[in-house]
């Protein structure tokens, strides 16, 4: 249990002792809108009912009788609210000591009590390019699983790749199409870095041709059957181009530092899924309608979910059935979480209902997120109007190298590139998770790299600046370093207390982010912390003061840098010592 929570429990305990009943919880203590009113505040409406007094009278009575305790400096009343100002020196010492002792463990808790939660994300399609819409899924899912792990869950990140759907048949069909001479000319010896773009072109061209050619749909369905039969040249090309995509995915995961405990593929679960579909037809859970196999969920107000087309080819729910059962049974899950585009929300409501009706007992959650668009409008793989991952990363890296080089003309090319890579990875990820999942993202490359404003670069720069302050102190032999001197602290400054109070709230931000599956809570917290630190640094001397105060303030700087690093780590973003 962290110090801020202990203080809340202590205050609540004193209130309950005065009332004579366990009525007030630590969670009832809130933060006043104006810091001048106090650090913590208790609305006295519930205690008033117990004491049979008005909330204002209750606040006055409790305020006048509240005992002296080490953590609280003053108690005041504002209408029905009982406000507490914490003892600045006491609070500073316990919070800064706590953070600097726990370091990278600060913020972690045991809320999850080791419960096993599988997070499925990066469920992209093969045979297309990897674009920035996919990147939101990847970054959001990775941040959620990191945050759940910090909250004491056994987090199991997995990926599910759709490698066997009609999208693959469309790409293969157009690649083989007699009108497509370009594909035949380049397919044999295409360079690895160009393969994703090539498949994207084939898919977009196929979608366009399908609109113009009345026979295209039938021909694509025929290719799908050939692939499902696992025989013939279409199947062989499917295997070859599938490997291209998987190699591309692996490269992207490695660059972004994302690891999975397992990667599932749709093609591995089609046969098992078909067997389940047949069993469900026999049990009456699924039915045949006009040659197609469906789940009629109208009575649950969920419409109809199709499993097999009238030609017998499988749709996504077939493999989804088998995979869901495999995950729950083989991994002994307490909860199974799916991260998907909000446009798939109905599909997962339908799938979860079918699984529930089939007897699968597990908590299943779909985390939906809104789409990503460009400043010029929406993206579409079908039309070819996308920004690929490689294009975005390349553009960001080019700009980051240029700006870093301009700031540090004395740095080596290797050092510039190393720092620029960290800035690039931060910009790639942070823009995808700094807002709630229910908000549409318009990705602006120029804004993403700015060193001011709500960006990863701003947070990384705040960290680098603090580390520079600490290095300067340690390099100055005439002054004590962070690890020498006495522990006397001068924390009477309001800016300092605001900073320490903010540091203490990090543990609550981590907990809330886990409860809400919301990485943006961490992003917003870090931005606020960095702003408060910058205000503090400009208003309060850290190095040019007496030795004891200098010592205490350097410890505070150390604590701030630890929290920024920890928070960025939960978002999957690295820090750099210099920028």
UniProtKB/TrEMBL annotation:
Domain (Arginyl tRNA synthetase N-terminal) spans 5-86
Its UniProt entry gives the catalysed reaction(s) as:
tRNA(Arg) + L-arginine + ATP = L-arginyl-tRNA(Arg) + AMP + diphosphate
Intracellular or extracellular location(s)? Cytoplasm
Name its species: Candidatus Falkowbacteria bacterium RIFOXYA2_FULL_47_19
| Family affiliation | Belongs to the class-I aminoacyl-tRNA synthetase family.
GO CC, alphabetical: cytoplasm
Identify the Gene3D superfamilies for this entry: Arginyl tRNA synthetase N-terminal domain, HUPs, Isoleucyl-tRNA Synthetase, Domain 1
Top-level class of the enzyme under EC nomenclature: ligase
Q: What is this protein called?
A: Arginine--tRNA ligase
Which parts of the sequence belong to the DALR anticodon binding domain?
A: 459-579
State the oligomer form and interacting partners: Monomer.
Q: What is this protein's gene name?
A: argS
Give the matching SMART domains.
Answer: Arg_tRNA_synt_N, DALR_1
GO BP of this protein: arginyl-tRNA aminoacylation
